[in-house]
Write a structure and sequence with these properties.
By secondary structure, this protein is an alpha/beta fold. The protein contains nine helices and eleven strands. It has a seven-stranded mixed beta sheet, with helices on both faces. It has a four-stranded antiparallel beta sheet with strand order 2-1-4-5. A hairpin with a 2-residue loop joins β4 and β5. The structure holds adenosine-5'-triphosphate. It holds the Pfam family ABC_tran. Keywords: ATP-binding, Nucleotide-binding, Transport.
Length: 231
């Protein structure tokens, strides 16, 4: 479980704060979407909940312990997988090497890491032949699938994705969001997707809208309290 307590953050002056006294909790097994206008602070929120940056005030807790106490690099390596719009795969490696090296870093408990990675890639339509090619030879949709399989193969329980479908067409976006659902509902991870696409939010269990320095829950239990705005 990930919790944010009394979160306040700004870059230049406190008067320009992006959030004020935010309290939130994110549970395992659920797929969350965070919607918000450009510049509202969505990417900054990703940095704060994944231990890439520290909030000016307040704290982020993982299973009841402050991530400062866990140690930011330990928190990032062991507990978080981040999926970026730009895939963020290591360009000089194959898909398989990208996944296995991430499994090594996170000390995955899988016995045969290579075999497991290949079986997971196969499930998303990436054959062994493709998996062994340099990742830059794969299409955008394939690279994003590799980035998500990397999150699936690592034992990290928290998956944070920043505009993961931003570079993809509609069909690939649909397939990617299905993978996020599997991560949440079958692997019981806590999955948080930052998006400006209402269609993506519609597929998520809980939708938060970042507006006026607060995160408002606009969808819970499959029903919208308020329809999201267009972003
Ligand atoms: N390192 C930084 N130093 C100073 N200001 C920053 C920094 N990073 C972001 N900002 C500012 O903070 C605000 C929030 O930025 P952020 O990238 O979190 O927004 P966002 O909601 O993700 O936007 P978008 O949807 O356009 O990607 C913006 O006004 C941005 O210019």
């Amino acid at each position: 479980m990930l919790e944010v307590k009394d979160l306040n953050h700004w870059y230049t002056t406190e008067a320009d704060a992006l959030y004020e006294n935010v309290h939130l909790s994110f549970e395992p097994g659920k797929l969350y979407a965070i919607l918000g206008s450009s510049g509202s602070g969505k990417t900054t929120f990703v940095s704060l909940i994944s231990g890439l940056d520290l909030p000016k005030k307040g704290d982020v807790y993982y299973d009841g312990t402050s991530i400062k106490k866990i140690g930011l690099s330990k928190f990032r390596n062991r507990y978080v997988s981040i999926v970026f719009q730009s895939y963020n795969l290591l360009p000089y490696m194959s898909a398989l090497e990208n996944i296995v090296s991430a499994m090594d870093i996170t000390q995955s408990k899988q016995q045969d890491r290579k075999k497991y990675a290949l079986s997971m890639l196969e499930k998303v339509g990436i054959t062994e032949e493709l998996a062994k090619k340099n990742v830059q030879k794969l299409s955008g949709g394939q690279q994003q699938r590799v980035a998500i399989v990397r999150a699936m193969c690592c034992d990290a329980n928290l998956v944070v994705a920043d505009e993961p479908t931003g570079n993809l067409d509609e069909q690939n976006s649909k397939e990617i969001i299905e993978l996020f659902k599997q991560l949440a509902h079958e692997q019981k991870k806590t999955v948080i997707v930052i998006t400006h696409e209402k269609e993506i939010a519609r597929e998520c269990d809980i939708v938060l809208e970042l507006k006026n320095k607060k995160f408002n829950v606009i969808k819970e239990n499959k029903t919208y309290k308020n329809e999201p705005e267009d972003y």
